[in-house]
Amino acid sequence: MGLRGDAKPGLFPHEGRGREAFIESTAMSSVSTVVAAPAAKTAAPLWPGLTLALLGSVAFSGKAIIVKLAYRYGVDAATLIMYRMLFAAPLFALLAWWAGRGKPAFTRREWLAIAGLGVSGYYLASYLDFLGLQHVTASLERLILYLNPTLVLALSIALFGKRVNAKQLAAIGVSYAGVLAVFGHEVNFQGAHVVLGGLLVFGSAVSYAIYLVYSGEWVQRLGSMRLVGWASLVACACCIAQWLVLNPWSSAAVAPEVIQLSLLNATLCTVAPVLMVMMAIERIGAPLAAQSGMVGPMSTILMGVLILGEPFTPWIAAGTLLVLVGIWLLAKWR
User: Could you tell me the residue ranges of all domains in the chain?
Assistant: First the structure.
């Protein structure tokens, strides 16, 4: 996740509305990143931007698959996320430097905001997601993370008094019905540990939703790439520090396959999707890039079946359809 994050841009009011202002790209449940981008130029061809958006969504969705594969080698969540962030940190540092060239230094208030957003949006959301994947399938994890737009809407209602209409409530109900259908099926067939895993992943989605709600003004003020680079570096530092505090040095000795998977996770499923979706939004605009990102849950399910051997049942098919329909209706009735 994120590094996690799967709420979609264009679902809620954005520029010019204070803290509620945000546009989120798919890259980071998954994981997916907040960006502020100009509208797409109508004269430009759509296929380059659409291709970038689709590839970014599929690449980010592969995070859950890689994590599930790594767990087969007996690694714990703290060590796994430490290696992911260790490999991603130099790339995010390069991104932060590149985006900050010629820009003024951060103020103390801006540093505090970056630290808070990094902890909520990337560190905590990612760690809870990794813990949850120990107990649930990649398919269920992706569907839970896809509820992110509904959580952002709920937080906007609670914190800022945003009004919601009956159609929006109906759309939210459709999405949650889909997740509950898959969740209930997994509880019946895989046991009560699915409840713990589901709650951890849901906590990850809530943490990232908090990041989205409060990040809008900072995206506009600092720029999306600069904010993502520095907030991600904060998360990298937190994950590495957590491992140093909680784990013995001996736990760093993992199977070579874990190192290879972590390197792949850091590059292909973490940094690359952020850049691809940002470039897609620059070309085709946030709303169209968001709709392209709806391929994410389907790609996760397909990879889960083909790579992990997870079952594909009518319950998963129906639940996925309901979640996607609910998100589409929420975007339509915003």
Answer: 18-140+193-309
